[in-house]
Design brief:
The complex is a heterodimer of chains A (678) and B (152). By secondary structure, chain A is mainly beta. Chain A has seven helices and 39 strands. The chains are: A mainly beta (678), B alpha/beta (152).
Chain lengths: 678, 152
């Protein structure tokens, strides 16, 4: 397979890497103002993205990449980022992680949209299916690998994904998109941006989609379970509808206010199997329509006090509700965050901040998930941070010292320090290094919920045993100490390389050793509790590379690669292992002024998923796939696009959810899209 | 004839400086005209200004990395990717004879002087005369005539 891939890649290079000399060498500075205004602006030629000069493993997904990819929701556009593993579980569910620990409930990746956390406090993880906005309104997505908890807060253990939407002044006028295909059965988006007054702009949008089920194959389950499931409906289709808007106001010179809000509803079909006390299968099967609703309102005031001092005050409210078949929950979050940046003297760039978050949740229990506290709980999170970027040698050497101090109801006081050093050797070479400590705070499920994970059918020696994984009030935060070194190299204008090596040392990782046994229901059955504890540790290390080559004015290549080694010894109660190798090769080609072509070819090594029932790991085969996109600008304001996804490879499993859910295969899919601006 | 936008915007910035009437005090100072810019992708375009002159003085292009370096500049160009800098930038140049130019949408409305706008493959510009007047600069009526919009 690898050999074939190499041949494919070489052929690509040979086909497209023909050099085209720049034609126009005349000097614009000799033109008069009138003449300048009459010159036609050419579409900007392919340029490599400038490398970041921050001392962190940062990768930026641009709005151009989002448009070219044709992604209709956020998880799809996170594929191909170096170090990120994106696995689709079914039509609606994703597992996304940085540097290992992937899962449907991956708890070590913090995700924010315009400063609002998208991380669920109940399960510690991100429900990707409800995190959405109009893709055309995203300015950029910053993916920071490695811990940056000192700046962003707890749970930024293995990475932070920052989704930043456009200023409403940049989205004036109308925009409409409409598309259809096989998996992407239909999607539509509409936005209108307007100027409200002399100093205020706004936009409103609505978007929706309907997606087909992914393919179920009985070979992906053990034969006993597959047989029991034979007559159960396995649909996993998905519908999502969302509306929202944003207002930006200039209140005074150097003072601005931003307000934004979104409302969504998502409806999904889901098939699950649960433990049951009733034989002969001791399982219940369910295929249900489930739904999720949400609302948020955010405001952010930014004010410059002087050329060297600026503060921002942000407050938001977020409501999220999910009615799953085996539980239901709603949460209300109120978050207030203050930040002040000030330059002190010539050499200190300081940011400090204070934050408070209040979460009130309400949990509907079921026969397989119960709470040891009242169904509704309240938690408080207090935080303070300070960061000082110190210029040691002008334009050459910087030291950044930072720390965050947090108090969370479940775990008490925590400190998350970070030191980073950056050395700009010259224009072409740039080195950085970082040492950081970060924590992953317990979720409600680890603190006070119990989940019925498995039934062991009765035998001659033993009655029926019902196994419960139980929360523990004394469960502590998981801890990471991470060491990173990065090197950026720009040998020539058209080439750049951005590489990182990391070593992550994890401590107090979760396990679930046997705890109390409840005999009160003997002889019908007994209950065995496995209680969450912090007894495990381990480490991983790896290398990530992002390289760019602007081959000609019209053709650009990117290769993103990551290598991870995982050393976690005994079986863990979470999936620790990242795929060893992941590589994505991308080509963007402007065939003419009006036609663009994009190609992505990715290879993902074997991945591992965890079966929560018996903590066994299952291997998911390596796979490769090709994405194609073709865009034709029919008129300046009309674009037609055609996309093929996951081509040249049969349907395969990308990932399996860790609890109660069926595996589904991701296969080739196609869709077309029309975009209109007015 | 077609040209890339970076070069055109750098050339426009130079032209705006050419048609600006500078305060006596500045004209009596014999130092090079400093045209500063934020945004690394503009590096090559602005560096092309280095062999130009304005009146009798030569022009110097300077890439800035922070707002605190702004006081040395006669002209500042901020590119659209640096929107987050504008809060402190506008406070820094408030009432000073520094010509501010940007392609950030809404820049003129926010308190900047000249905003470059791209529409249907042509460049246009808007001028906020209120801010210009406060700074002690005067922009030639030849320029204002060509503006898409002048806020008075």
């Amino acid at each position: 397979m690898l050999k074939l891939n190499v041949i494919f890649y070489s052929a690509l290079l040979a086909c497209f890497a023909t050099s085209i000399a720049t034609a126009d060498e005349s000097n614009s500075f000799d033109l008069s103002l009138q003449e300048l205004l009459n010159v036609e602006v050419t579409s900007v030629s392919k340029q490599k993205q400038p490398l970041s000069n921050s001392p962190a493993a940062i990768y930026v997904i641009t709005s151009e990449h989002i448009r070219n990819s044709g992604a209709t929701s956020i998880p799809q556009v996170l594929r191909d980022v170096p170090g990120l593993h994106v696995g689709q579980i079914d039509s609606q569910k994703w597992a996304i992680s940085s540097r290992g620990f992937n899962g449907r409930y991956n708890n070590k990746l913090l995700v924010l949209m315009d400063g609002r956390t998208l991380y669920s406090p109940i399960f510690s993880g991100v429900y990707w299916e409800v995190q959405d906005t109009l893709m055309a309104d995203i300015e950029r997505i910053e993916v920071i690998r490695g811990p940056s908890a000192a700046m962003w807060g707890a749970n930024a253990v293995n990475g932070v994904i920052n989704i930043i939407t456009k200023h409403s002044a940049d989205t004036s006028g109308g925009y409409a998109e409409l598309g259809a295909g096989d998996y992407e059965q239909g999607f539509a988006g509409f936005r209108y941006g307007s100027t409200l007054s002399d100093n205020a702009t706004s936009r409103v949008y609505v978007k929706g989609h309907s997606r087909d089920s992914l393919e179920y194959n009985s070979q992906d389950l053990d034969s006993g379970l597959a047989e029991q499931l034979a007559t159960v409906d396995k649909d996993n289709d998905w519908m999502h509808l969302q509306v929202g808007g944003r207002v930006d106001m200039e209140l005074d010179t150097g003072t601005s206010l931003m307000l934004s809000s979104d409302v969504y509803r998502t409806e999904m079909q889901q098939t699950s199997y649960y433990p049951s006390l009733v034989g002969p299968s001791y399982r219940d099967f369910n295929s249900n329509d489930i739904s999720s609703d949400g609302f948020n309102l955010l405001s952010k005031l930014t004010k410059a006090l002087s050329p060297t001092s600026q503060y921002s005050l942000q407050a938001y409210y977020d409501y999220a509700k999910r009615d799953d078949d085996w539980y239901g929950f709603s949460s209300e979050t109120v978050d207030v965050d203050f930040q002040h940046q000030l330059l002190v003297g010539q050499n200190h760039n300081i940011i400090w901040g204070l934050g408070y978050r209040f979460i009130q949740d309400d949990f509907d229990q079921s026969t397989i998930i119960v709470s040891s506290e009242s169904e509704s709980t309240r938690t408080n999170l207090w935080s303070a941070f300070i960061r000082d970027e110190i210029t040691l040698v002008d334009d050459e050497l910087w030291l950044t010292l930072a720390s965050r101090f947090e108090h969370y109801d479940y775990t008490g006081f925590e400190v998350q320090p970070n030191a980073r050093l950056m050395w700009q050797l010259n224009k072409k070479n740039n080195l950085w290094a970082s040492v950081a400590r970060a924590i992953r705070t317990p979720s409600r499920i680890e603190n006070n919920l119990s989940v019925n994970s498995q039934i062991i059918p009765p035998s001659v020696q033993s009655p029926l045993v019902s196994i419960w994984v139980a929360g523990n009030e004394d469960y502590k935060s998981e801890v990471i100490i991470s060491y990173e070194v990065g090197y950026r190299f720009t040998p020539a204008k058209k080439w750049s390389f951005d590489s990182t090596i990391f070593y992550n040392d994890y401590d107090q990782l979760r396990n679930a050793p046997a705890g109390a046994t409840d005999f009160s229901t003997f002889p019908n059955y007994i209950s065995q509790y496995l209680t969450f504890s912090n007894d495990l540790d381990g480490y991983n290390y790896g290398f990530e590379l992002s390289s760019q080559w602007a081959a000609t004015d019209t053709i650009q290549f990117k290769v993103n690669y990551s290598f991870t080694q995982n050393e976690f010894g005994v079986s863990q109660s979470q999936n620790t292992d990242a795929p060893e190798h992941m590589i994505s090769t991308m080509m963007d080609w402007s065939i003419s002024d009006n036609v663009d072509f994009n190609l992505v070819w990715r290879v993902i090594d074997e991945a591992y998923v965890l079966n929560i029932n018996d903590l066994s790991t299952k291997e998911i085969d390596s796979y490769s796939g090709v994405d194609l996109g073709l865009h034709w600008k029919v008129k300046p304001d009309v674009m037609l696009s055609a996309f093929g996804k996951n081509l040249l490879h049969p349907a395969n499993l990308e990932f399996e959810g860790e609890s109660y859910q069926l595996p589904y295969r991701v296969g080739p899919s196609y869709y077309i899209k029309a975009t209109l601006t007015f | 004839m077609a040209q890339n936008a970076f070069e055109l915007k750098a050339a426009l910035t130079y032209n705006f400086a050419k048609f600006t009437q500078w305060p006596e005090a500045r004209l009596n100072t014999s130092s090079a005209w400093k045209i500063c810019f934020f945004g690394n992708q503009y590096h090559d375009s602005f560096m092309g200004l280095s062999d130009k002159t304005l009146g009798t003085q030569s022009v110097m292009a300077i890439e800035l990395s922070g707002i605190s370096q702004i006081d040395q500049c006669d002209v500042v160009f901020v590119d659209t990717n640096s929107r987050e800098l504008t809060h402190r930038l506008l406070v820094a140049v408030d009432n000073k004879a520094i010509l501010t130019v940007s392609d950030i949408t809404g820049f003129a409305m926010q308190g900047g002087m000249i905003e470059i706008v791209e529409q249907d493959k042509r460049l246009y510009f808007k001028v906020n005369m209120q801010v210009v007047a406060k700074s002690g600069l005067t922009i030639s009526s030849q320029v204002l005539k060509l503006a898409l919009e002048v806020k008075r």
